[in-house]
Design brief:
The complex is a heterodimer. Chain A is built from 3 helices and 9 strands. Chain A is an alpha+beta fold. By secondary structure, chain B is mainly beta. Chain B is built from no helices and 7 strands. The chains are: A alpha+beta, B mainly beta. At the A-B interface, helix 1, strand 4, strand 6 and strand 7 of A face strand 3, strand 4 and strand 5 of B.
Amino acid sequence: MSINRRTFLKGSLATGALGVAAGLGLLKPTQVLAAWPDNAFQAKTVEDALRALTGTTNTEPGAIKIKAPDIAENGAVVPITVSAKLDNVDSISILVAKNPQPLAASFDMKGDLETFVSTRIKMGETSDVIAVIKSGDTLYSSKKTVKVTIGGCGG
Amino acid sequence: MAKNTIKIKAKHKNGVTAVKALIKHPMETGLRKNKKTGKKIPAHFIKEVTCSHNGNVVFVANWGVAVSKNPYLSFKLKDGSPGDTIKIAWVDNKGESDSRETKIK
């Protein structure tokens, strides 16, 4: 009887320790994700997304180069490259005006980087692709229309 | 946990290090429907990609669902030199993650 009780106690202690370990492991991703701008990604319009991301919608036209195809045959994979000759850039964001959630990606530039980023995004239909670069308190933006023949968001 | 999902190339040329990465991930938007059952496929996408150079975070990508399946990412580092460590780590909306290190060539 007493032995059974002891083994039972040992067992519950071990599972307790495991639970703590799992808890610690699970904490990590949430801490990392603290900076993820939830509101900005859920916004339904470009203005709302910008406001949630940066607090303002006032953008200045800037010399930002957006390299994207004029016509994208497949909207599920549209290569986008954003570059600019600007210094002290804090972030580069890519928005697609007509996507259900316009904000596609936002890149924080923390190190000594060139103002350059390249990625591939999905586009539901023909739309403007907007690049917004935050440098200090100023937002620079530029856009380019990409024609999509097959959408990338439908099922 | 996801494993071996990241491929990185970091090349030093003319004083600039170009880092290119490919990540294997479904990037489900949550808007697509399963054609057979008509049910929505739940969203499953990478939220954050953190890139470090010699242990310092230099570049963070915050992604929404509009980033393509098996995402590609590229950026350019001004102060990298051959032999430096580049680490890329991602976390998705389900809490899955993966990371990989490489040396600048």
